[in-house]
């Protein structure tokens, strides 16, 4: 029997991170030393208070059963209090918040809950691949808005004609932005909310890196008055608290959007292991100065080192002031994929910009998730930009 994948799966482009991982493993199995600046996965440890809370609560038998689909009341309350403290945004923890097994899962399931076959979604280019892939899986068609260097990788909404706004079902937005590290001011969200109301589309905002602004704390779309009528926002504990492996995040926003997400998730998964939620509560209620700031300082230092080092080698580096990514222009006349393959052979793993969309061609992304000595080693291996 010839086993056939579903047509939906066949339509998906290969997942870029999985492809790089395969090549990387192959080289590692041959004994090659690689400085891995490929994936945005913090190398720093999860702070001790979360580990302690996990350990304590894991000993309590009542945490061993199926969790509730939407998250513990205490977890949802902690999310709502955090929204208030961080953004001065009030949300009802019963109807406007839910737990996620990481924000990737939430973003994908949200898309499945709201995008129909034939629907269009509007997605940043370049972008984290999940928005487009989830759209394709739902039978929809992704359309793109370009984020350009001359605009510091911020959207220019006035470039998008009215007929596009009229046909689109969901607009995705992600700031601080992966892969470019760009940030936006509240006004960019306000202009989008105004259009969402005028044309009748949903805003799906991905705030996975919202705690990683170096100068100003990045805003939330929900700070725009009335945004809750049209928007849902996804947050993650992965990056800011070094908890990528724990799989915990949350969605906040319009009650109908949360209800749709709840409906699909309760059909497909069974919530977040309760001790992980208790650890999440510890994170959200903790002091940023103790739980987030120390890692940010490490990234800040690494960032300076790498920006200077790459500039000395002749590269143009975009520093948007947030996240642990650098967005670097690759040598003229080379494709990103070709240049990144060369770097891999030289023992440095980076992600080709083209994997994030057409506008990413000509760039590569560096994740600052290795210690300083390894960054220095990478700088020795990366050739001069010529
Ligand atoms: N959103 C963006 C922009 C990301 O870069 C990532 C992970 O790299 C995620 C969401 C998903 O993070 P998690 O599922 O760990 O919350």
Write the layout of secondary structure elements.
Layout: H1 7-11, H2 16-29, E1 35-36, H3 48-58, H4 73-87, E2 97-100, H5 103-114, E3 120-125, H6 130-137, E4 141-146, H7 162-167, E5 168-174, H8 186-199, E6 202-206, E7 231-236, E8 249-253, H9 255-268, H10 274-285, H11 288-291, H12 293-312, E9 317-318, E10 325-329, H13 336-345, E11 348-349, E12 351-352, E13 363-367, H14 372-381
Parallel strand pairs: 1-11, 3-4, 3-5, 5-6, 6-7
Antiparallel strand pairs: 2-8, 7-8, 9-10, 10-13, 12-13
Helix pairs in contact: 3-10, 4-10, 5-6, 5-9, 12-14
What is the fold named in CATH at topology level of the largest domain?
A: Aspartate Aminotransferase, domain 2
Number of spatially distinct domains: 2
Which runs of at least 5 residues are low in confidence (pLDDT < 50)? none
Report the end-to-end length measured between terminal Cα atoms: 53 Å
The CATH homologous superfamily of the largest domain is termed Type I PLP-dependent aspartate aminotransferase-like (Major domain)
Can you tell me the overall shape?
globular
* Ions, cofactors and other bound molecules: pyridoxal-5'-phosphate
**Tally of helical runs:** 14
Question: Could you tell me the number of beta strands?
Answer: 13
- Strands across the major sheet, in which order? 2-8-7-6-5-3-4
Mind describing the biggest β-sheet? 7 strands, mixed
Order of helices and strands: HHEHHEHEHEHEHEEEHHHHEEHEEEH
Name of the top-level CATH class of the largest domain: Alpha Beta
| Portion in helices | 40-55%
Report the mean per-residue pLDDT as an integer.
96
Give the CATH architecture of the largest domain.
Answer: 3-Layer(aba) Sandwich
Report the structural category. alpha/beta
């Amino acid at each position: 029997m010839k086993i056939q994948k579903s047509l939906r799966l066949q339509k998906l482009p290969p997942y870029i991170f999985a492809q790089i991982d395969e090549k990387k493993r192959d080289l590692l199995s041959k004994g090659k030393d690689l400085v891995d600046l490929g994936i945005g996965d913090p190398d720093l440890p999860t702070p001790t208070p979360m580990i302690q809370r996990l350990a304590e609560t894991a000993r309590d038998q009542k945490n061993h059963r199926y969790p509730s689909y939407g998250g513990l009341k205490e977890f949802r309350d902690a999310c709502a209090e955090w929204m208030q403290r961080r953004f001065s945004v009030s949300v009802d923890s019963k109807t406007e918040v839910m737990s996620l097994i990481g924000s990737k899962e939430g973003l994908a399931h949200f898309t499945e809950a709201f995008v129909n076959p034939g629907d269009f979604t509007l997605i940043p280019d370049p972008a984290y691949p999940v928005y487009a892939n989830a759209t394709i899986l739902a039978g929809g068609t992704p359309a793109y808005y370009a984020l350009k260097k001359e605009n510091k990788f911020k959207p220019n909404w006035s470039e998008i004609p009215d007929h596009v706004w009229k046909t689109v079902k969901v607009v995705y937005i992600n700031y601080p932005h992966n892969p470019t590290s760009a940030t936006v001011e509240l006004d960019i969200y306000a202009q989008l909310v105004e259009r969402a109301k005028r044309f009748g589309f949903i805003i799906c905002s991905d705030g996975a890196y919202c705690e990683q602004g170096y100068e100003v704390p990045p805003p939330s779309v929900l700070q725009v008055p009335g945004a809750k009528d049209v928007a849902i926002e996804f947050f993650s504990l992965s990056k800011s608290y070094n908890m990528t492996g724990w799989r915990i995040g949350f969605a906040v926003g319009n009650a109908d959007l949360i209800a749709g997400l709840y409906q699909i998730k309760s059909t497909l998964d069974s919530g977040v292991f309760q001790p992980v939620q208790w650890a999440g509560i510890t994170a959200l209620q903790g002091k940023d100065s103790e739980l987030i700031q120390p890692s940010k300082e490490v990234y800040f230092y690494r960032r300076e080192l790498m920006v200077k080092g790459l500039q000395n080698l002749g590269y143009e580096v975009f520093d948007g002031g947030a996240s642990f990514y650098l967005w670097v222009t690759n040598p003229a006349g080379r494709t990103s994929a070709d240049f990144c393959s060369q770097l891999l052979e030289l023992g440095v793993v980076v992600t080709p910009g083209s994997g994030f969309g057409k506008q990413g061609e000509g760039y590569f992304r560096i994740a600052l998730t290795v210690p300083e000595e390894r960054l220095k080693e990478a700088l020795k291996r990366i050739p001069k930009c010529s």
